[in-house]
Amino acid sequence: MSIDATREGSTLLITLNRPESLNALDLDHLDALRDELCRFRDDPTLLVAVLTGTDKAFCVGTDLKQVPDPRASFAEGYFAPRRESVDAGVYVRALTVSTLDIRKPLIAAVNGYAIGGGMELALAADLRIASESASFGLPEARWASVPGIGGVSYLLRSIPRAVAMKMILTGDRIDASEALRLGLVSDVCDSPALVERAMELAARIEANGPLAVQGLKQLSDRTDDMSLSQSIELEQLMWGLLRDTEDRLEGRRAFAERRTPQYRGH
Questions:
Q1: Looking at the predicted structure, is the pLDDT value of residue 134 above 80?
Q2: CA-CA distance, 111 to 260, in Å (whole number)?
Q3: Helices marked H in the chain — which ranges?
């Protein structure tokens, strides 16, 4: 079983394929997933990525049965380079998406259980859609632990605080309909149509100006903890950065001529 990656046009479809473990990921598979995300980040011809899972689960986090015991103190492991840190027992650093500096949209197509680290992966995506069978939860408190790759921070920024705190402190799960009601996901569909819906969404994003899409992602990432005035100022600077690009001029011409724009990423 593996991390499967297939390219469809300018979209990279990444599928977690360890159904025997509900797509829990051991360290080798966490590394493989990180490699695919870095491939997406570094390939200028790839514009959008979709992350999903096989069978009954999106992902249920790290495969704790395969995680080795710590070989060093936490401080020693924490300050070591990433690979050495993971090997020393700080396995939460095996895949922290926020450190990868991915400047293009990532869509999570959640097809079943998104639990623990799996929910954290979904939360790290820019867009989330779900099948009717999806469920979401951060159960770490039940096992005397806490989420390690951004689950608390992301969830508190994604849904109302009282609901987020209830999930975090109790470990309770919510289903797809509740996730949609809360705004945790943007769409819910039948399981067989999930990946197709995600790819359609990716195609709609790809049709827009690629520099503008990357600029919008940067704005969404950078303005979370800014004041309103700072956030608006950054928007104006981003607008100015894009104002004289070839794509924006093409977009204006296409609008005036009532035709589909032909963007080149320049």
A1: yes
A2: 33
A3: 27-42, 74-78, 82-87, 117-124, 151-158, 161-170, 176-182, 194-206, 210-222, 228-243, 246-257
pLDDT at 1 exceeding the cut of 70? no
Catalytic residue chosen out of the listed positions 36, 76, 84, 140:
140
DSSP code of residue 263: -
Would you call 120 a catalytic residue per the annotation?
yes
| Residue range 155-204, pLDDT digits in tens | 999 999 999 999 999 999 999 999 999 999 999 999 999 999 999 999 99
Is 140 annotated in the active site?
Answer: yes
Instruction: Please identify which of the residues 120, 178, 200, 246 carries the catalytic annotation.
Output: 120
Half-sphere exposure of 249 (CA within 13 A, CB side): 5
For 93-109, the pLDDT digits (tens) are 877 888 899 999 999 99
Helix (H) or strand (E) holding 17: strand 11-17
- What is the set of domains in the chain, with CATH numbers? 2-206 (3.90.226.10), 210-257 (1.10.12)
Opening angle at CA 147, ends 146 and 152, nearest 5: 105
Whole-structure pTM value: 0.93
